[in-house]
Amino acid sequence: RILVLEVPSGQVSGSIPLPGRPTGLVLNPDGSKLYVTCGAARSVVVIDPALGGTVATIPAGHTAMGPSVTPDGKLLCVASRFDNDVSVIDLKGGTQVARVPVTREPVATAITPDGKSILVANHLPADRSDSFYVTAVVTIVDVATLETTDVRLPNGSTGLRGLCVSPDGRHAYVTHVLGNYELVPAQVVGGWTNTNVLSVIDTTNKKLLDTVLLDDRSLGAANPWGVATTADGSR
Fold first, then answer.
1. Per-residue pLDDT at 193
2. Is 58 helix (H, G, I), strand (E, B) or coil?
3. What is the 3-state secondary structure (H, E, C) of the chain?
């Protein structure tokens, strides 16, 4: 179910039942519709926040999650985790217009402010585990052509979860785990084997800019998840 909370009191003012466990939600730009992915039910539930109830259901893929809406409110993008693709849904007709294959287990999507690109966080690497370079990728989909570009993260990157785009559309931020695969597995408790990081992607040139450590010294910040920017993009 979806709970409606009053701000700033945090009091529950409403409860909306769903056909399955929710895996993600997003409002359309004018706030008139809420789209909720339900993984087990393989569907997207359309909710009218004013009425506090479901108005439609749109079929989706296996373990649908990580929805995002284009700035013009015309398209909904949904990651189908175990289908390894992203569904592009026409919201006016409520129909799927494309399924775009991505690398492996997409869990989050984000759309640039100009509506031209969809970014997709692939949860796990698709490389052979005995390769020297083993890393998950962020896939960038061109909305007009549906062509894809994979941005490879630092060696050992895995467990991607959260993804967002800066307000100016120049950067994308993704949270993930970084395994030091080439190092001797010493100081496990101190975080020398796995660290928790935030990677920054240049969306224009489609390349990795930098990776920022989230852990404190000898203290891990295990499994970083959601990420968002302030409205001005400064934080």
1. 76
2. strand
3. CEEEECCCCCCEEEEECCCCCEEEEEECCCCCCEEEEECCCCEEEEEECCCCEEEEEEECCCCEEEEEECCCCCEEEEEEHHHCEEEEEECCCCEEEEEEECCCCEEEEEECCCCCEEEEEECCCCCCCCCCCCCCEEEEEECCCCCEEEEECCCCEECCCCEEECCCCCEEEEEEEEECCCCCCCCCCCCCCEEEEEEEEECCCCEEEEEEECCECCECCCCCCCCCCCCCCCC
Which tokens sit at 64? 């649908």
Q: Which residue has the tokens 């010493």?
A: 186
* Mean pLDDT, residues 14-18 taken together: 93
- Listed residue (150, 29, 34) closest to 84, CA to CA: 150
pTM of the model: 0.92
* Residue-wise pLDDT tens digits, 33-89: 999 999 888 999 999 998 889 999 999 999 999 999 999 999 999 999 999 999 999
